[in-house]
Amino acid sequence: MYGDAAKKLVLDAKRSLNLNDVPLFQADLVKDVIREIDDLNKDAEYLTSQQRLQEESQGSFTEEEQKINQCQLFVTHLSMRRNKRCLLAYQKSRADQIDEFSWLNIDPDQESYNEKADASLSRVSRLNLDNLSHEEQEYFRNYQEVITNYKSNFADLDLSGDLEPPTSIFIDVRVLKDGGEVQTEYGVFNLIKDSQFYVRKSDVERLIQQGYLEEL
């Protein structure tokens, strides 16, 4: 049925909002939606030609037949527009997730980062490139390059940190899920669920963003 594949894409995008990784690209569903749009476009072209024929051959078609054709053409265009909007929403949702990973400096290919605070994240959250389409992988790398070049102009600022000013330098945090060893300027601690630490906020800010820690 028309619209089913597009609906599945939107539901997949909605479910992925609560995940710590970008899920597998639904290539088959995307192809189904594009194929459906092509079929609808052919139907629209046929109905348009029928409408033109009705206008040229006066009296050959009843008023009811003309209204039926106009209604079919209208619904066909609405169906195409809906499919396109669902497809764009799916791609936009994934692009937003890729953007977020890029700003958090989550490198899928290396175990180290340019910044000291990012070293801990390499073992607790990463972007699986195998889940991305070829175009998404290229977008991710290009976007990371843009961010790196932009950050180089502000070497003394952490542009990917929390936008809210800190109320204190050190904070108490609780570990929400296991994540392995974390290296900070003031020492090493292990992310073991339900354990608590008193740490410098700037060292764990991104772990909080990723949902591994919560501030008490």
Provide a compact summary of the structure.
By secondary structure, the protein is mainly α. It is built from five helices and five strands, in the order ααααββββαβ. It is found in: Nucleus.
Q: How far do the termini sit from each other?
A: 50 Å
What is the spatial order of strands in the main beta sheet? 4-1-5
What top-tier CATH class of the domain at 4-104 fits best?
Answer: Mainly Alpha
Total strands: 5
Structure annotation, total helices: 5
Report the β-strand fraction as a percent range. 5-15%
User: What is the typical, i.e. mean, pLDDT?
Assistant: 80
Order of helices and strands: HHHHEEEEHE
Oligomer: single chain
Largest sheet: 3 strands, antiparallel
Report the structural category: mainly alpha
What radius of gyration results from the CA coordinates?
A: 26 Å
- Dominant shape: elongated
